[in-house]
Specification:
The structure is a single chain. By secondary structure, the chain is an alpha/beta fold. It folds into 2 domains: 223 residues, 3-Layer(aba) Sandwich (Rossmann fold), CATH 3.40.50; 158 residues, Glycogen Phosphorylase B (Rossmann fold). It has 15 helices and 13 strands. α1 crosses α15, α8 crosses α13 and α11 crosses α14. 44% of the residues are buried. About 2% of the residues have low confidence.
Length: 399
């Protein structure tokens, strides 16, 4: 136990259980604000339902509160607004995004101000800007930044193949983020690369801490029959944007003389661009089963992204798919890419195409890649990530 009397965790994503578990075991009273979450009892009822379609049951069962936090609240209807725009490949209007986040942040602030005694308050970015220090004088405040420092995304990116990139002059919630950075005692990020994007902008190294996300993978992957791979077909999974590197992946595949399957949301202009590329098969958003099939049939995952983590890299490696990732992809820190793929520096099309060529001629055993990928993924179990989070937040143990 710590000497905190109460805690709040407000999280807009689905990865909150490992933090909630850590708080429940260390703080007497813990409150939780998350996206729509089911109790384990409700999950059992839904799991046995013969009325709900299987796809609906699976979607609901992903939202189970297994942390044991009794004082749990939701984010309201606003939680569905931003994901809806993203999944449709549409740009979120700035006014709508700010209104939705302000309403949710106000809810978080009310709960934070009601905490008793010495408290710890952790929130994902955008949820903390309504908290006032004068109303939470005994709180230790943790801002969980899910992405890189926002300035990374307003830089001028080189694009390839006349990709229809829309330059971002300013993050629409920059004022919220800056307020949260000033408010926080610590800023928690998911990788050393993400941390460096803050240090490069003058942040105190003692305030920026790292704790990775847990990786939950299929337990049946190892029992599946060996995959039949098309080593001349690459795979890209993610939002079809420059910061995810879709244009670079497509250009590198073209230069290497291979086909590439692109899976993920895309704007109408990007979908039109992808359809004009003869070596590209755009399949849009995929279910987990469809993604598993892609992971087991492609030759390699191409991941030239700027991002704090990158769960898709672990998913791919788990199914024996080699990963070619950028050094600006946070997952590179945790995956041994010498064992499960290749790390590439920079955004040179020639360099990425050469990485594809080398991987195709390396003669590595796909079964060995699968075993090593699964081993690396298991290293970030929920229990291990709770331990690393506690070290980052409370200073427990060693990294």
């Amino acid at each position: 136990m710590t000497d905190f009397q109460s805690a709040l965790y407000a999280c807009s994503a689905k990865h909150w259980n490992h933090v909630a578990d850590g708080l429940v075991s260390r703080v007497p009273e813990t409150a939780l604000i998350t996206p729509f979450a089911l109790s384990p009892e409700a999950a059992q009822i839904i799991g046995r339902s013969t009325v709900l379609p299987r796809s609906v049951r699976k979607l609901l069962l992903r939202r189970v509160n297994s942390s044991g936090v009794a004082n749990a609240g939701g984010l309201g209807a606003g939680q569905f607004v931003l994901p809806m725009f993203v999944h449709l490949g549409l740009k979120v209007p700035m006014a709508i995004r700010r209104q939705a986040m302000t309403a949710q942040a106000s809810r978080v602030a009310r709960v934070a101000e009601s905490l008793k005694g010495r408290s710890v308050v952790q929130f994902t970015d955008g949820f903390g800007h309504r908290i006032r220090r004068d109303r939470t004088p005994e709180a230790t405040i943790i801002c969980e930044r899910r992405n890189l420092h926002q300035d990374i995304f307003t830089q001028t990116f080189e694009t390839f193949g006349n990709f229809p990139h829309q330059h971002l002059d300013r993050d629409p919630i920059e004022s919220f983020l800056l307020a949260e950075y000033r408010l926080a005692d610590k800023i928690l990020v998911y990788s050393s690369y993400a941390r460096q994007t803050f240090l490069d902008r003058g942040f105190d190294p003692a305030r920026v801490v790292v704790a990775p996300l847990p990786v939950s993978l299929s337990a049946t992957a190892g029992s599946m029959k060996p995959p039949e791979r098309d080593k001349r077909r690459m795979l890209f999974v993610g939002r079809c944007e420059v910061v995810k590197g879709v244009d670079l992946a497509v250009a590198a595949a073209r230069l290497a003389g291979v086909r590439i399957t692109v899976a993920g949301p895309a704007s109408p202009s990007v979908r039109e661009w992808l359809s004009a590329q003869r070596h590209v098969d755009y399949v849009g958003l995929q279910t987990s089963e469809q993604l598993t099939s892609l992971f087991r049939s492609a030759g390699a995952l191409i991941l030239p992204s700027y991002e704090s983590f990158g769960l898709v890299a672990f998913e791919a490696a788990h199914y024996g798919l080699p990963v070619i990732a950028a050094d600006t992809t946070g997952a590179s820190e945790y995956l041994d890419l010498d064992a499960v793929g290749t790390q590439v520096r920079g955004r040179s099309v020639d360099t990425w195409a050469s990485a594809i060529d080398r991987l195709q001629t390396s003669g590595r055993e796909w079964t060995m890649l699968s075993q090593r990928g699964a081993e690396k993924a298991r290293m970030l179990s929920p229990q291990e990530c709770t331990r690393r989070w506690a070290n980052a937040v409370f200073g427990e143990g060693e990294n």
